[in-house]
């Protein structure tokens, strides 16, 4: 049995009919489908509990879509939601724009596109990983303090921070093609720890059957 497991849960589908790159904008809520995804995620963690897992700590990004996704899990497991700014969505200079491709042809935005490896249009990948790792370390410790050895924590975050954290955990380059991220809506990326060290990374999609009809515009 691992010393601890930290689950990184991506939020559910967002109501976003204008296909805005919503980033850190506070007003974007879950759609009806996203609410169903949040309930499915709660069922997923409830089943883990029935199978013997001790999920003792629940954290969410301060953004509305993450808080709403965490709600059903909090209710199902009897946990409070701890809000942590460190697992918020990545900063993006194109935040608030829709139809991003058309804007990329405008010269005023070109200065944001010179370095895709950093990336130059937003928060550096390395900075995202650093803040996520700090939050994960704290969550791992809190889970074990509250639930004992083998306890688990759930962190509700966003696609890009979760994905680059996984890449870093697997020793892979942080630069990537956004279309190839394995981090679907309401997916669970699980980090297993032994003796304080990462020993395994696992991935699950509790809402796989809901994804074909979902809008999946990355937030950043």
TrEMBL record:
Give the highest taxon in the source lineage.
Answer: Bacteria
SMART domains according to UniProt: PGAM
InterPro entries, per database record: His_Pase_superF_clade-1, His_PPase_superfam, PGM_Phosphatase
Q: Which Pfam families match?
A: His_Phos_1 (PF00300)
Q: Which CDD domains match?
A: HP_PGM_like
Q: What is this protein called?
A: Histidine phosphatase family protein
